[in-house]
């Protein structure tokens, strides 16, 4: 669709199921505008190029504008929002954006539903129908989603590396006490301190391993893990695994605020 073309607007109508519900263009204009939209999209897709440094950002902007224009036209009796998001997803994947990334925008719209409808309404009623706010809103959602995905992936990598590291530290040590210590450190949650009185009930295996043991055995095992550098003890009452030692093996992450 040419950038200088704007469909005829009608006054938005309210729907109790949504914060705003645009009524779309006149029915007799739908076919023409959808054809122009498809023509414009096909032309832009053919010019994306092969450089991934440019192709991905340009595809994201194109998909966002396609979403916005189809929402403005509203050619269907129902499901226009779903079709707009589906078109956006199709354009992203066609341009080579990985599927997990292409799903991020729909997730963003669901999480910020009120803002989504508010910005759509603003773009449809303001003079010139400016798309910049919607493009910025979707771009921010995509960036936030990518950062969250990267954090989740690195958290999984950290967990796998930690388990492998602990197993290597106990490799070849098959006596009961060492197996018990290994299982204890692997069971400790990485995101908070665990009271020492609770470590023996973290799972069924530990409960069974310590069932006939005294508190002295628990203390001895924990002190042994502290000496190995696998566990940190806080004031003698709580413990946590030193998973952060694995961070040295992860690729460095750029501070998002560094460029601001």
Automatic annotation (TrEMBL):
Report keywords, A-Z.
ATP-binding, Nucleotide-binding
Q: Where is this region: Disordered?
A: 1-25
- Composition bias of kind Basic and acidic residues appears in 15-25
Q: Which residues take part in binding ATP?
A: 78-85, 116-117
The family database entries (Pfam families) matched by this protein are listed as: Fic (PF02661)
Which positions fall inside the Fido domain? 1-140
An example molecular function term from Gene Ontology annotations? ATP binding
Alphabetical list of InterPro entries matching this protein: Fido, Fido-like_dom_sf, Fido_containing
Skewed-composition ranges (Polar residues): 1-14
* Keyword Isomerase on entry: no
Q: What is this protein called?
A: Fido domain-containing protein
